[in-house]
Write a structure and sequence with these properties.
10 strands; Rossmann fold; binds adenosine-5'-diphosphate; alpha/beta; 7 helices; about 260 residues; single chain; six-stranded mixed β-sheet; binds magnesium ion
Amino acid sequence: MADTILKIEHLNKTFEVDKEKIDILKDINLEIKAGEFITIVGHSGCGKSTLLKIIGGLVEYTDGTVERNGKKVTEPGTDCGMVFQEHRLLPWLKIKDNVAFGLDGVPQDEREKLVKEHINLVHLDGFENVYPAQLSGGMSQRAAIARGLVSNPSILLLDEPFGALDALTRIQMQREIQRIWKEKKTTMIMVTHDIDEAIYLGKRIVVMSARPGEIKTILNVDSAAKNRGSADFAYYKKKIYDHFFEDAEDAPEYII
Ligand SMILES: Nc1ncnc2c1ncn2[C@@H]1O[C@H](COP(=O)(O)OP(=O)(O)O)[C@@H](O)[C@H]1O
Ligand SMILES: [Mg+2]
């Protein structure tokens, strides 16, 4: 049995808006093993980003437990990298310095080695000395992934990382993140609103309900379903849409 890398038990999150407590996440239970690729899908506003931020230690949770690598999560750590929809690269720093950003305190030669290795991993060799404005959207996300992985975290959290890319670049980047996952064996947890992306990449898909976000179901994805044109792929797609639109009268319309 592989090691448990993330354990979430009875997690609840409320936000206070105008002195009113609003339930955002409700009784989330999730255990993730080292090396898994988990995708999380759900309606806009159901708390997906909040959940990732809680795992990453960027947002406090209200109650329950969240343990990363066997330790209660209280703050961000080098064991957990993050990639967001916007690349969040600092415009005044060269790509190599942006990638090195999370390596404070690492000796210079080790730092250079890690940066070179990760620029190579995301296939940005030759772009070390350019500035973010000189990169395309896909390349900027490559740099953001390199920055997220540079400290060799055991978990990489990805919040709609390809959401701002055009359709073809998006497919290319899905292949890239899969390649990187296989090469680095980092545990990946990706939030996406793109059902195809969730099926293509996820070993397990966490399907969430509308706010307050609860886990409706977790689907184990068969390896045969990785081919987007296959009947298995269509099967998972229908299953997920069924969860989202089970109450809607026009639910069958999406089945083309
Ligand atoms: N800091 C905050 N204060 C109050 N409400 C928030 C805060 N952050 C997020 N929310 C609310 O929590 C809900 C879930 O947000 P989010 O996690 O961003 O959803 P998702 O990523 O699934 O679209 C939304 O209704 C949002 O407005
Ligand atoms: Mg979000």
